[in-house]
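To close the section, here is one more complete example, presented without commentary so you can practise reading it yourself. The ligand is heme C.
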Amino acid sequence: MNRLLISSGLGLFAAATFLSLSAQSPQAPPLSSHEAAGAKTFSTNCAGCHGADGRGGERAPNIATSRNIIALSDDDLEGIVKKGVPGTGMPSFSYLGDQPVKDVLAYLRRLQGKTSMVKVTGDASAGHDLFFGRAECSQCHMIKGEGGYIGSDLTDYAAGAAPDAVKLAITNPDDSLTPTSTVVELQLSNGEHISGMARAEDNFHITVQTKDGRWRTFDKSKLADLKHTGRSPHPRDYETKLSAKELDDLVSYLTVSAANAPAKGGRRRGQ
Ligand code: HEC
Ligand code: HEC
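Output:
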């Protein structure tokens, strides 16, 4: 059975990618009665392992935005849910009965649709060029294994996120600031000045990661000065440095990258 599923998953690969980028309406219609019944079944029987949004948990992979699962036919999905996947921890749910299984799959399709309804208004390939070029994002962030590592890996950052939220993360970095990505300025007793992110800190020591990626730990009592700036190292001037169209292109690039990213939390089918 598995081999059959693998090939059907790959066969529809292109179609699923297309689907996930072409759906237009960001406003989902209300749940049908079958979908609503399926939502209940899902939360009792599936969410514990696959997560409430189906995007994966500790015990089971992402089945909501994984293109390999989206690409499976309804019959394939029904077979999986009824028979389970022997030897993997995916139980058989045939005991639920035919209609409840159909309902839960209708709801799963809804979860898949909801998260795949991305509207890309910009030019993703221009966004790619900005990311690795003039906007210098890749000095700090990585996408698909390319770029810097001071900032987070953005390969699937935009998955399921509203374009406006992605744009805000780019233009207003301090809104999403975490203590470990806050810039600190250190003055050493020998006069040397160091600026970096406060990756770890207690009463006595502070560990700083500098822009070149190096980690250095200092004894606080030996510092001439230590300033917490409350800022992110992510530049604060993108709103003015980039045009509205360029920002749109970048958001589109991140969105397309996320739509094409492998699912989190599970092995990749067919790899
Ligand atoms: C006890 C944990 C658990 C529960 C509960 C569970 N699953 Fe799974 N599920 C798994 C695991 C583990 C896998 C990965 C199987 C594999 O490695 O192929 C999986 C895989 C799947 C897959 C993808 C199979 C594939 O071919 O990759 C689907 C679809 C799925 N589950 C749907 C459901 C639905 C719908 C429910 C609720 C009716 C559910 N699961 C409940 C653990 C669970
Ligand atoms: C000088 C380094 C640097 C540059 C250049 C930079 N960023 Fe960032 N960015 C960061 C850091 C550090 C954070 C804080 C969160 C983290 O640790 O990634 C961040 C946060 C973000 C976030 C929010 C991520 C999250 O996990 O919350 C996004 C999205 C983002 N940057 C996109 C971009 C884009 C797009 C560009 C180029 C236009 C860019 N960044 C340029 C360092 C940088």
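Once you have examined the tokens, check your reading against these statements. The pocket of heme C (ligand 2) is lined by residues 135-137, 139-141, 150-152, 154, 157, 166, 169-170, 173, 176, 181, 232-235, 238, 250 (CB under 6 Å). The beta strands are 142-143, 146-147, 183-188, 193-201, 205-210, 215-219, 223-228.
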